[in-house]
Amino acid sequence: MSEIARVNCGKRYSGSFKENVLRVAKERSLNATEVSRLFGIAPVTFKDWVKKAETRAAEARAKALAKEKAIRKELSQLVMASAKLNEAMGQLELELYQLQKELNKAS
What we know:
By secondary structure, the protein is mainly α. The protein has one domain (3-82). The protein contains four helices and no strands. The chain has helices spanning 3-8, 15-28, 32-39, 43-106. Helix 3 crosses helix 4 (43-106). It starts with a helix and ends with a helix.
C-alpha cells in the first residue's frame, strides 16, 4: 500500500471539502485519477462521493417532481372549482335579473 493510501485510510472529509472537490471535478471535467492527484484523495473515495451526490440529486429530482405533480393536481382541482363557481354565479345573476324584471313589472 502506498504512503498516501495509508495516510488517507479512514480519513474523514468535511461536507464543504467534498462539495468543492465535486464542483471542481465537474467544472474541469476531471476523472477520478486526476482528482486523486489534485486533491490527494483515493480515486475510489471520489467515485463514492460522486455516486452519493448523484443519488441525492436523483432523490431531490424525484421529490421535486412529486411536489410538482401534487401542485398541478391541486391547480386542476382549483380551476374546476372556479369554473363551477363562475357557472353558479352566472345562474344567480340570471335569476336576480329575472326577479328584478318581475319587480319592475309589479311596480
